[in-house]
Every structure is written in structure tokens, then in C-alpha cells.
Amino acid sequence: MEEGPFLRRIQAEFPDLRWTSHRCLTHGWDHAVVILDEAIVFRAPKARAYRDALADEVRLLRHLQPRVNVGIPDYTYQSADGSLAGYPLLPGRELDVDSFRALSDSQRGRIADQLAAFLTAVHEIPKSTAREFGVSEPDPRKDLDDLRRDIEALVLPRLAPHEVPVVRAFLTEMAAESRSVHPTTLIHGDLSGEHVLWDAENQQVNIIDFSDRSIGDPALDFAGLHAYGSEFLEQVLKRYPGPKDEGTPRRARLYFRRGALETMVQSFQGYPCTFEEGYAELLARFEP
Which domains does the chain possess? Predict the structure, then answer.
């Protein structure tokens, strides 16, 4: 969605809303995002297929609001057709790896406590309730088959000869894991550094972008925490009393690695990422 039409649509939907400055975010994958006066965030789906999904996301977050201990988007603006929505900007900066490393041990402990409590609250929402809010339940085996096909066609031909068997061995391991039995729950689906905000002033975690929510393996919500190191992941899991099993840490690591391959595939599918970004992740995440 182009900037001008987006702003005009906001004005048309909410004629009493005034602002003096705006900032468009360009790295969103599924939604166009604009921030007005560094105070209000508006999101709109880039494709018609996501229109109903945004309305469902708003309804789910309103259900979660009183049940979680962290800040999440509190949508106070919603267009008549539900395809445009806005919420007060949540404070904090993205918790990228460099920002995390600069924190004290006590701050990291606070973050671990809050993430564990947040994930417990989300994962314990009954699946029947999640379905009432339009949350999907993808088939992990079909998703893996699709990913394998795309990797064979798009990724493997571009890798060095010694890297190909490493990736194929990983896909075999993922296939074996997909046949295992483990709990499924409502999950955030993309709990990575760009969606975890750390408000240092208030020592508060805020979580954004629930567009990848689904019913799936709760281990997926721990995958992105691998970026901060296995020790931090263990801290969060130790504090987390929600649905887990002895294979949760192993599956989280597998999903973290899978993300590198997904980035490389998606670079050929029109997403705002590059093959080089995914390849750098591959080298870092698949190192012995």
C-alpha cells in the first residue's frame, strides 16, 4: 500500500484524528504500517486475503489483554470493514541481539520472567477459544513438504557442495520430528527480537505483531529466543510452567535453524528479505 492512499484512508475512516508527522515502516511482510506523531500505530493488510485475519487478530488481542503480564497492542481504532486498525504505540526498543547483550543480568532475568509468564498465559488459552477467534491450525507435515520442495528448487543449487548434505540431513531430522507426538497450543508464531520490545524505563516487555498466530507446537515460540543464546532460552524454559515436554528445547533449536532456510526461500517469493540474509543465518545457526 502506498503512503499517500494509506494516510488518506486513515483520515477518511477517522475524521476526528489529527497528526503533524508520520513515519512508514518498510520492513513489514504482511501489513503496511504507519506511525502517527510517534504515538499511534496503524496497520493494514497488504493483500485482501489478510483482511479478515486482521479483524480476528484484534478480537483475539482484546481477549488476551487482561490475561497477559506484558504490553500488547490495544486496538482503539478499527475501520468499519475491519481491514484497518490502530493502537497506541507501545514504548521500548526492539530487543535485537546487540541490545540484549548490553543488558545487565538482572534485566535479563526480568525479561525471562515476563516472557515465561506471557507464553504460559498464551499457551494455556483453550484451543477451542482460539478457534473462535479465527486462529488457524496448519498441517506441519504439509508445511515441511512445501518447504523441502522449495529448498530443493531454490536453495540447494546455490549452496556450496559441502553445505548441501548438511541441509538435507537437517530436513530428514525435521521430517522425523514432525512425526513425533507433542502438545499443540495457541502460539504467537514469530517471537523474535523485532517483535519483542524492552521498555528500559519501566523494566517492561511489550510484544507486538500477532499476525503469525496459529495453533501449533509451543516450542516454536521459544525458537527465536535462541538468538540470545542457549543459556537465556534455558532460563525462560525453567520459569515456564506451561505445556512442554522433554523434546521442547530440541524442537525449538530445530525451528530456529529452519528460519534461516525459510528466509532464503522467501527471498525468491516477493518478501522483503534477501538470500544473503538467510545465508548468513544459515552459517551462524548451522555451525557445529
Answer: 17-87 (3.30.200.20), 93-285 (3.90.1200.10)
